[in-house]
Amino acid sequence: MKRNDGRAPEELRKMEAKTGIIKRADGSAMFRIGETIAYAAVYGPRELHPKFMQNPEKGLLRCNYNMMAFSGSGDRVRPSANRRSREISMVIEKALEPVLDLTAYPNAVIDIFIELVQTDAGTRCAGICAAAMALADAGIPMKDLVSALSVGYLRNEIVVDINGEEDMNEGATDIAFACLPITGEISLLQVDGEIKKDVLLKALEKAKEAAKKIAEVQRKALKERYHDKHDA
Amino acid sequence: METIENKKIVVPGEVLATGMDFLPSSGTYRDKDKIVSIYVGLTNVSGRVIRVIPLRGRYMPKRDDTIVGKIMDMTFSNWFIDMGCANMGVLSVREISEFVERGADLAEYFSHGDYVVCKISKVTRSSVDLSMRGPGLRKLGPGKLVQVDSSKVPRVIGKQGSMISMIKDKTACRIVVGQNGTVWIQGAPEDEMVAAEAIYKINQESHREGLTEEIAALLEKKASKNKPLTREDEEPIMERGRNETE
C-alpha cells in the first residue's frame, strides 16, 4: 500500500534539527518532522516560584506545551492554554523525567517551553524530541536522549510517523511513543483507537527502530553547533 | 585496550568505551560494561580515567569555590547573594572580615546591588553558606561585569592562571574571575573593553585548539598604553580552586 504522501510504511517524514537558536534561554532546540515544527527552550535549574511548590528533596521539571494560534486549522488550535495542552504538558514531563536526576536540584525548577509554530500531527512527539535536545544543550546531566514518534495502524497496516491526513482517517489508531534510544526503555505510550495486543507489540518494535533514526538526527544537531565554529 | 579520542565532542547517551579497561569519572556513568556520557561536552582521557567536560550549563555550587555574586536581599543577620544558580547564597554577618555591631544596619556594609567576592564555605541540600574571611575576598568597586559559562572558567583562568595573567598584563586591568562565571574587570574604559572582548572570545570558542595564541594576538594588537599593574598595586586575589587540568 502506498501512503498518501508516497512514503513506505516504515519511512519517517523528512527531519531537520537545530540547537542553540534562542539566545536568552539556557538551552534551546528546533525539531521539524514533515510539516510539524517544534521549538523548545529550557531555563534553569532556577529558583522555583510559587515558593510552596518547592521541594527540598527533589527539583521540579515543569513543561509548557503550546500550539501557536496560527499553527494549523481545526478546533485544536486555540490561542490560550486548554485542557488538552495541560495534559500534553504533563505527559511530556513524564516522558523526559527518566533521563534526569532531579534530586540534584533541591528547591529548584527546570522550565521547558515548547512552542509549535506549524502542526501536522505528532506534535507531542516533535515537542519531546525538541525538549530533549534543549535539555542537553542547556548542559543538564542526562542519562540518555529521548526520541519520540507516532506509530499508526490504519487499513490493517502498521505505519510509522503518521501525518495529519492519515490521523484523520476513519478507524485509524494513533500511538504516541517515546523511548530512550540506547536502552529502548519506553517513557511515553499513548494509544488512541483500537488495536490488538500482538499488533501493538509489533508496532512498538517498529517504533523503536525508527526512534534510533530520530536519535541520530538529534545527536548530529547537538554536535553541529560546535562543529561550525571549528571550521570558521 | 582500545584508544579513546581526546577532546571529541560527545552527547548524552553516547557510549564512550566498552569493557572494563576504563574508569568513569565526572560527566559519565557506567551502565553494565559501557561508559556513557551525560553531557554535551568534550572527552578528557587521562590514563584509564574518562571524563566529559560539559560545554555549557548553569553553575553548580561547590565548597571552596571563589565566586562573584550580587547582593539581592538582607535580613538582620544575613545577606542573600545571587551567584547565578538555583539557590541564593547566604552570607552571615559573622562571616565578614569587619566587626559588625549588634543591631547595625547591614546596608552600610553591603547594600542591594553590590557585587562581592566570596568563598563557598558549605553546601547543603537546603542552602549554600558563604564566607568573606580570606585574602582577596571583598566588596567590588566600580568596574565592568562579564558573564561566561561556569564550565569555561578553567579555560579563562588557564593553566596556573596563564590565560588570566596574560590578559591582566596586556590590558593593565584588575580582573576577578568567579568560579560561577561572573568576571569583574576594572581599568581604563578602553582597556576594560579589550579585556571583555578577550574573555568573551574565550567563552565562545573555548573548545578550539590554539585559542591561547589567538587571544595573545588579539591582546597584542590592542595592547594598553598603560603600565601593567604590579603585585603591589594589586590587592591579592586568590585564583586557587579549579584551574585548567591536563
Describe this structure in words.
The complex is a heterodimer of chains A (232) and B (246). Chain A is an alpha+beta fold and 232 residues long. Chain A has one domain (15-231): Ribosomal Protein S5, domain 2 (2-Layer Sandwich), CATH 3.30.230.70. Chain A has four helices and nine strands. Chain A has helices at residues 83-96, 123-137, 164-167, 197-231, and strands at 15-19, 27-33, 36-47, 60-67, 108-118, 147-154, 157-160, 173-179, 186-192. In chain A, helix 1 (83-96) packs across helix 2 (123-137) and helix 2 packs across helix 4. The longest helix of chain A is centred in the last third of the chain and has 35 residues, at 197-231. Chain A is globular and about 55 Å long. The mean pLDDT of chain A is 93. Chain B folds into three domains: 9-54, Beta Barrel (OB fold (Dihydrolipoamide Acetyltransferase, E2P)), CATH 2.40.50; 66-131, Beta Barrel (OB fold (Dihydrolipoamide Acetyltransferase, E2P)); 144-221, K Homology domain, type 1 (Ribosomal Protein S8, Chain: A, domain 1, 2-Layer Sandwich). Chain B is flat. In chain B, strands 8-9-10-12-11 form a five-stranded mixed barrel. A four-stranded mixed sheet of chain B has the order 1-6-7-3, with no helix packed on it. A three-stranded antiparallel sheet of chain B has the order 2-5-4, with no helix packed on it. In chain B, 17% of the residues lie in helices and 29% in strands. With 246 residues, chain B is an alpha+beta fold. Chain B contains four helices and 15 strands. Chain B has helices spanning 153-157, 162-171, 189-204, 211-221; strands at residues 9-10, 15-18, 23-24, 28-31, 34-37, 41-46, 49-54, 66-74, 78-82, 89-92, 115-123, 128-131, 144-147, 174-177, 182-186. The chains are: A alpha+beta (232), B alpha+beta (246). At the A-B interface, strand 3 and helix 4 of A face loops of B.
